[in-house]
Design goal:
about 280 residues; alpha/beta; Rossmann fold; binds S-adenosylmethionine
Length: about 280
């Protein structure tokens, strides 16, 4: 069954339908030149789960992983990458590297002393360029596999009484605050549904330093044009925009988030069903 799952994942990848590949298309729709990005994969595993989907679409790739038993597969799957075996939380504090794209494929659970991506803040800002994209794994709502330790960490991180079902705008407010405290601003964001069973998603945050440290700072384009390029979805934010507390960007992201809960291509669904069935 493991082989079936791998085959389905490979088929999905070959068709360009994986959530990661679709996230990269979303970025290009937003005028981000993905081929120019220096990327960091903070949690590497073997690279098979999603790093393979974008490894050849970026200008450079560095991958970190704590488990030395993954190193051989990691190097075989991603021959173009610079691989570091060690604790990513420590590496964030000491690496001299700076990246345009920070991909945080965190476990969506408590692992060791850590939970999800929560302890990466604020150190993750150390390795971000003045204009960067941060991709996080976020838990779906409601999260189907809660345990008490996980819920307690979510309660504290998102400052919510509903850690099992954190409202999306509460999440965004949390990241906005963290960014602000780290000297960055949230320029735009969107989500892309990742798993059928657990409803986990990518949260893609375009961040910019409030006062650039780098004199050659060139901001990436805003997504102004992108909105005009995807008029078929324009009616969705238009429905949510009138809600008093939402600006257009939030309305747009919320409605994309809602649409992603339903729009799910066949191959992705089969791959997910295979994994639910324990393949
Ligand atoms: C969801 S997997 C990553 C999948 C990977 N991005 C891919 O494309 O195949 C999470 C990985 O994080 C690693 N990990 C957990 N804690 C870590 C830490 N403190 N430092 C580095 N890696 C860690 C785990 O060993 C695991 O391989």
């Amino acid at each position: 069954m493991f082989i079936v799952k791998r085959l389905l994942w490979s088929l999905r990848r070959a068709l360009g339908l994986s959530p990661t590949q679709r996230t990269f298309k979303d970025l290009r729709t937003r005028n981000v030149r993905t081929g120019d990005l220096a990327a960091l994969e903070v949690f590497g595993h073997t690279g098979f789960l999603h790093t393979l989907d974008y490894a050849r679409k970026v200008s450079s790739l560095e991958v970190w992983e704590i488990d030395a038993t993954k190193e051989r597969d990691l190097r075989r799957n991603l021959p173009q990458a610079k691989v570091k075996i060690g604790d990513s939380f420590d590496e964030l504090k000491r690496t001299p590297g700076r990246f345009d794209l920070l991909v945080v494929d965190n476990p969506v659970q408590v692992y060791g002393d850590h939970c999800e991506h929560f302890d990466l803040f604020p150190d993750i800002f150390r390795v971000a360029k003045d204009s960067s994209i941060l991709i996080l794994n976020i838990a779906g709502n409601p999260w189907p596999r809660p345990d008490e330790a996980h819920l307690a960490r979510r309660r504290a991180f998102y400052k919510t009484d509903h850690p099992e079902n954190v409202p999306f705008d509460r999440m965004i407010a949390t990241y906005r605050n963290l960014l602000h405290a780290g000297g960055f601003e949230l320029e735009w964001f969107f989500t892309r549904r990742r798993t059928w069973a657990t409803r986990a998603s990518y949260l893609v945050l375009k961040i910019g330093r409030k006062e650039p440290l780098d004199s050659s700072f060139k901001p990436m384009p805003s997504n102004e044009g992108a909105r005009r390029k995807v008029p078929r979805r324009a009616f969705l934010p238009a429905l949510t925009y009138p809600l008093p507390h939402l600006d257009w960007e939030s309305a747009e992201a919320l409605s994309y988030h809602a649409a992603d809960q339903r729009v799910y291509p066949f191959v992705e669904m089969f791959a997910e069903l295979a994994s639910v069935a324990g393949c």
